[in-house]
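Aim 2, interim progress: modelling of the adenosine-5'-triphosphate-bound target.
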Amino acid sequence: MLKTSFNCDTVELTHQLGLMIGQKAKPGDIWSLSGPLGAGKTQFVKGLAKGLGFEGMVTSPTFTLQHIYESPIPLYHFDWYRLNQSKEVEDLGWMEWLGRGGVVAVEWGDKFPKLLPPATINLSFEILSEEGRRLSVEAAHPESIPRVEELILCWPP
Ligand SMILES: Nc1ncnc2c1ncn2[C@@H]1O[C@H](COP(=O)(O)OP(=O)(O)OP(=O)(O)O)[C@@H](O)[C@H]1O
Ligand SMILES: [Mg+2]
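Predicted structure of the complex, ligand included:
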């Protein structure tokens, strides 16, 4: 298990962390994003999409439940905030999306931990102040630990 945390004192730094992760991402990477409303999960995904090479607008999937961004490695962006049962997630084709070779980012992923594969990287957002956020990351799988090790080497930017 590898655990560390990154301080993002501004929204730009949260974008930057997402961007770096996007630039280093590999098909099949799965990021579970957790933390309270307004913590910065969607802001992080904006950076992630940019890092993957997506140039359009990224918006919150809280109401639509899922957005797909067609970047060189596609990004599948989910939000489980409004879902109450794991069956609802499964009915949205979750298992199929996991196998499609994109990067998966799921907001409120900690609601249904059993649906997250072992290689999932957990990123937990804490609100420290109006602009300050602590992003704690945990990886437990041989495939995902190197992803976090790389990140440690290039942070702070
Ligand atoms: N350091 C920071 N990182 C991220 N967002 C920040 C930061 N500082 C301030 N903010 C602001 O906090 C808000 C974060 O909103 P965002 O939609 O990303 O939250 P969220 O975690 O996705 O919430 P929800 O659970 O409702 O989807 C934005 O208004 C953003 O400008
Ligand atoms: Mg959000």
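The chain has one domain: 2-153. The chain has a mean pLDDT of 97.
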